């Protein structure tokens, strides 16, 4: 290989990641415009909502000026984006408190919940999916596939209610709701996180199990795995040593989609378990018609989904040598 070829091979992954980074930034910009425009066309006056129905027109107009709602929409958008880029999410129309600190605190709760839920899903899906694939013609494999199909049909909130009824009400092992920061009491935080994480991860684990099964079945039909088994390796060692890396590429795609689904599904789970997360803050802001808070929360969720997709694209480059060569 010549020097030019080596440089091109080394620049390949970096160039691919740079292109995906540009797409991520552009998508975030478009998302911010769409979110702002959607909130701008919603009926109702935030100043009127903040003051109540008995406020005088003069006071409403004064409040609109205070909120900056009397300025052109382009100016409002640029001020909002400029604040976001510097970490200033503005002041709530309803509570008159800065949105940024509240959003950061709530986001921490949601990230813990989503991360734990994804961990539960992976711990369930990877071993069960492999068993369902390797033993797909045996009763154990068929049973795992059937259980996964049933799990797909169960809503996360129903799983949460059942778990609360069993482990909180009947057995009394775990709390039915509430949140304790890990810095205050690590044990109480862990006990309070178990049921929400399992509720969120069970359904996603069932979905992921089926994808893992399909990916492993495809890999088992490849020539390199049949060769490894012909050389004397048993099915599971051959799959672990030579097959899982190839099976991981399509599964990573599903993981990215599921992580975005978990971000949205956390809204319901936070309500069931009374967790002070981003989903609860969003629902409270919608109920209070605090449009600036809703606007900021929605954008954070959208950027979170875009970030997940960007990281998935980067993982493709790491896992699949063909992408690095291209």
TrEMBL record:
<keyword id="KW-0812">Transmembrane</keyword>
<comment type="similarity">
    <text>Belongs to the binding-protein-dependent transport system permease family.</text>
</comment>
<keyword id="KW-0472">Membrane</keyword>
<dbReference type="GO" id="GO:0005886">
    <property type="term" value="C:plasma membrane"/>
</dbReference>
<dbReference type="GO" id="GO:0071916">
    <property type="term" value="F:dipeptide transmembrane transporter activity"/>
</dbReference>
<dbReference type="InterPro" id="IPR000515">
    <property type="entry name" value="MetI-like"/>
</dbReference>
<keyword id="KW-1003">Cell membrane</keyword>
<feature type="transmembrane region" description="Helical">
    <location>
        <begin position="247"/>
        <end position="273"/>
    </location>
</feature>
<dbReference type="Pfam" id="PF19300">
    <property type="entry name" value="BPD_transp_1_N"/>
</dbReference>
<keyword id="KW-0813">Transport</keyword>
<dbReference type="InterPro" id="IPR045621">
    <property type="entry name" value="BPD_transp_1_N"/>
</dbReference>
<dbReference type="InterPro" id="IPR035906">
    <property type="entry name" value="MetI-like_sf"/>
</dbReference>
<feature type="transmembrane region" description="Helical">
    <location>
        <begin position="293"/>
        <end position="319"/>
    </location>
</feature>
<feature type="transmembrane region" description="Helical">
    <location>
        <begin position="146"/>
        <end position="168"/>
    </location>
</feature>
<dbReference type="Pfam" id="PF00528">
    <property type="entry name" value="BPD_transp_1"/>
</dbReference>
<feature type="transmembrane region" description="Helical">
    <location>
        <begin position="21"/>
        <end position="42"/>
    </location>
</feature>
<feature type="transmembrane region" description="Helical">
    <location>
        <begin position="188"/>
        <end position="212"/>
    </location>
</feature>
<feature type="transmembrane region" description="Helical">
    <location>
        <begin position="111"/>
        <end position="134"/>
    </location>
</feature>
<feature type="domain" description="ABC transmembrane type-1">
    <location>
        <begin position="107"/>
        <end position="312"/>
    </location>
</feature>
<keyword id="KW-1133">Transmembrane helix</keyword>
<protein>
    <submittedName>
        <fullName>Peptide/nickel transport system permease protein</fullName>
    </submittedName>
</protein>
